[in-house]
Amino acid sequence: MELPRYIKHLDTFVFAIAGYVAIYLFTKYSGVGISPDSIMYASTAESIYKYGNFTTFNGTPLTYFPVFYPAFLSAIFIFSDSAVAAAPVVNGLMFTALILLCGWLISKFRYPSRLYKWLMLAGILLSPALLEVYSYLWSETLFILLTVMFIWAFKRYQQKPGLQTLLIAGLTASLCCLTRYAGLAVVLTGGLLIILDNKLAVRTKLTHLITFSVAGISLLVINIIANSIATGLATGERKPSVTSFAQNLHHFGIVLCDWLGLTHEAHPYGAAIVIIILVGLIAVIIKNIVKQRLADYETLFAAFALIYSLFILIIASISRFEQLSSRLLSPAFIPMLIGCTACVPGTITSMAAKKGAWMVLPAIAIMLGFLYNILLIDLKRYDDEFEYGVPGYTDDDWNKSAFVQFLQTHKSIYEPGVPIYSDADEAVYFFTGMRARLVPHRYFKNDIVQFHRRKRFYLVWFKALAHPELIGLEDIKKFKKLKKLYELEDGAVYEYRE
């Protein structure tokens, strides 16, 4: 007798509720973590709600990121005065939805196993990468959920390959692109799976491929055209990468070692671990194609993990952005975890029928060891943040900063009309609501020239920050005779008057 649906998925609900509690605990002390990107998102969301435009805190249109995540955040203002204040609840609900969706999809695998589902959901719930992402106001929170929704939507298309299901999958992929530019990996994944589908006639395959691709990039193309009209830049000002493919592969490997709970001694072998996992994902996809299982959820997870990983590695070797980190790679965590382990239940079932049920024990032991390692990482992080806050502009280093309190209570020290520069323009806005300009990056030579031509400005300098890509205080003093107006232990305010 089949159990009722609400009983059948009760275990998934338990994990989902635990996910919400976990985000609540990590953000309980001082709220959600805030980084410079977070302030960009939150300020744009407020502009969307109040003024109907996509203007950031510095008065320029949002181009460096796509617009869907700030648009999503703007809906928060219907219920709250602050996206930052409401973010712990919103992130907790998104993490809950992510666990619910993953649990439901896992139960639809070719070889459904309740024990396997428990282990996978525990891995998602305890993942340091995901707990970090959902503790911050970052677009990855929405992007990861949308990528898993895409896998569900594309599976529906594969089951019933018609125009309606194809457009639903394409629209989902398009929302991924409109959330993060890396959503192009979702479109590439869908396109690859359509090409590999031997059940489609050649003409139908070509039609579906074109239709899906156009639908998948449609919203992003509109966003890029709007950016180009507004600023002349399609995706913001970007520079060529300064890291090679081999270096990015090494950085990727370090992230994987951290995900697996390995010690620093494993970091030199990180690149080899990445290669082994990517080759394994390719083998899984080829095996499922041979066995005509292209439409299985297991194949979809493996395909996205492979395409997203390769996409990030290649883009990081072409375009300059921050070093590959757990945050940037976090959308690959769930697909990689499932893609590398989905074959285990079927293999164990087959082997157990021949050699006995004890064959399941080694696989369980390995997974339990992995869960134990990442649980220790989570507990250490929680211990660090329980009375300190999530690292960023809401932690105690900032909340209890004398310089920040000074800036908040001395907004009248600046003469109107005189520009304010800072090494953390987003911090000035976040804590005071005032607009400042970021000092130039070292590699934007024209910006440095324009800055040196300034005849008068204020400079708000945070001493604790270290931005090697920005010109430093000493660099400025070589060309400008700064007058120190106020100085505290962690910052100072200067004025330059020619």
TrEMBL record:
<feature type="transmembrane region" description="Helical">
    <location>
        <begin position="324"/>
        <end position="344"/>
    </location>
</feature>
<feature type="transmembrane region" description="Helical">
    <location>
        <begin position="356"/>
        <end position="375"/>
    </location>
</feature>
<feature type="transmembrane region" description="Helical">
    <location>
        <begin position="268"/>
        <end position="286"/>
    </location>
</feature>
<keyword id="KW-0472">Membrane</keyword>
<feature type="transmembrane region" description="Helical">
    <location>
        <begin position="166"/>
        <end position="196"/>
    </location>
</feature>
<feature type="transmembrane region" description="Helical">
    <location>
        <begin position="6"/>
        <end position="26"/>
    </location>
</feature>
<feature type="transmembrane region" description="Helical">
    <location>
        <begin position="85"/>
        <end position="106"/>
    </location>
</feature>
<keyword id="KW-1133">Transmembrane helix</keyword>
<feature type="transmembrane region" description="Helical">
    <location>
        <begin position="208"/>
        <end position="230"/>
    </location>
</feature>
<feature type="transmembrane region" description="Helical">
    <location>
        <begin position="115"/>
        <end position="131"/>
    </location>
</feature>
<keyword id="KW-0812">Transmembrane</keyword>
<feature type="transmembrane region" description="Helical">
    <location>
        <begin position="298"/>
        <end position="318"/>
    </location>
</feature>
<protein>
    <recommendedName>
        <fullName>Glycosyltransferase RgtA/B/C/D-like domain-containing protein</fullName>
    </recommendedName>
</protein>
<feature type="transmembrane region" description="Helical">
    <location>
        <begin position="62"/>
        <end position="79"/>
    </location>
</feature>
